[in-house]
Known about the structure:
The protein is mostly beta strands. The chain contains no helices and 16 strands. The protein has two domains: 13-48, no CATH class; 62-222, Jelly Rolls (Sandwich), CATH 2.60.120. The protein has strands spanning 13-14, 26-29, 34-37, 46-48, 62-63, 67-74, 79-85, 91-102, 108-115, 124-133, 138-149, 154-161, 168-174, 192-196, 211-213, 219-222.
Amino acid sequence: MPRRFASLARLLSLTTTPASPGAGDMWFRSDLGSFRGSDGSAGLALTVGPEGNVPVIRPTAWHNWGYGNAAAINIPDARLFCMPFWPGRICTLTGVATNVTTALASSLLRYGIYTSSDGVLPTNLLADYGTVTSASTGIRSITGLNTRVRPVLHYLVVVRQFAGGTLSVSSRSAWDPIVSDTSPTIAANTNAYFYDGITGALPATLGTPDGTDQGPCPVVQLT
């Protein structure tokens, strides 16, 4: 009877592309957290594996992964919107922003980011970025952040807090199709899971979402 052995292939861990890789060569870019390979051609190496919904990182620039027609949506008080965010390589998140189209006196927007322990839902708080006023229209941003983000599924979160009335923000009509519902939903533009009743600091963990909805269109500054 033949004997069977498990095997483990370990790639070279590098921080730069080899000078002259041949077709079929593979290596791991530890500075980017990505697997790379060569097809024998000159130029950029191939990225092996999923690219995520933000595949290209332009250092210090702002990144928006919503697309389709722009729209303004009303967001209820204390509803935490969780939008999937999946960068194509290791990067540092240095800023987050949304656009307020209808301002609301005394209201605040709180931003943060969660990781996903199961690769499906938001689960563990990575950072609570605090609040910015939404009492005036235009871009509402928090900058000067320093969150290391791996090339796996995360969730950017936005929640309106501390005021009754109407607050509207910019959204988009199409999104990466990671968010899913528990029943057939075809007409709605759902880009977010949501959790209601978030009135203060972001919870350390999140459980089963209260539902899905069309949430804000966040943009993030990455480096």
